[in-house]
Amino acid sequence: MTGVPASAAGGSGATPVRGGKLGAAAVNQASLWNIANLLTMARLVLVPGFVVLLLHNGGYDPAWRSFAWAAFAIAMITDLFDGHLARTYNLVTDFGKIADPIADKAIMGAALICLSYLGDLPWWVTGVILFRELGITLMRFWVIRHGVIPASRGGKMKTLAQGTAVGMYVLALTGPLATLRFWVMAVAVVLTVVTGLDYIRQAVVLRRQGLAAERAAAQAPQSAPEEAGTVTEPAGARGPAEAER
């Protein structure tokens, strides 16, 4: 009501503050504590607890291994829900983008290393799976500026097979179930390798397309002045240069 323009007032009014950078920062900070991120944090907290349960009493107590399996199962279930909730309710945050894959790799890596340490799982199986998971994670960062490769059906089957196989190895199974878990793990290893190779192929293609698009975008501004010069220059001003075309 004073007649002073908002720009002259220096943006000290209530409305500019709510819509300005300070208000946006407050919203982003509050959104960190959403249900999807809380599930991811819970999965990270479960990792050390799972290790303690699995290795308790030398790692061969069936009861404690059942408790460890329960912790592992909860971690796998929350992995299914947090990403879905984040996408469905627009709860995606920078923290979630970083913490979610870390939590996935942490619980799976801890389980594989502990099982190999106890002698239940060959070290080469652990090495193949961890090498693939870490390598693909690094490759994802390598191509992230060109785009994101969506999760494939094979990748989802790989995750399911890995979770099922590791869960069966965490339990103290004997007899036919022990034989079954061997074959489930074999399927998981095959899917791990095959989907890893397919991801590498897609990443290379995506990077080539991204670099080609960048080169095309870089060349576009250089041709614009030439076209403008052709229109604005007087007829005959270029002389011999026109004959060279």
Task: Give a verbal description of the structure.
- The protein is an all-alpha fold and 245 residues long.
- The chain is 77% helix and 0% strand.
- The protein has helices spanning 14-19, 21-31, 35-55, 62-88, 94-117, 123-143, 153-170, 176-232, 240-243.
- Helix 3 (35-55) runs parallel beside helix 5 and helix 4 runs antiparallel to helix 7 (153-170).
- The model is unreliable at 1-30 and 226-245 (pLDDT under 50).
Describe the sheet with the most strands: none
Q: What is the number of helices?
A: 9
Indicate the mean pLDDT: 79
Unreliable runs: 1-30, 226-245
Radius of gyration: 28 Å
Q: End-to-end distance, in Å?
A: 65 Å
SSE class: mainly alpha
Q: What percentage of the residues does DSSP assign to strands (E)?
A: under 5%
Percent helix, as a range, is: over 70%
What is the N-to-C succession of helices and strands? HHHHHHHHH
Q: Overall 3D geometry?
A: globular
How many beta-strand segments? 0
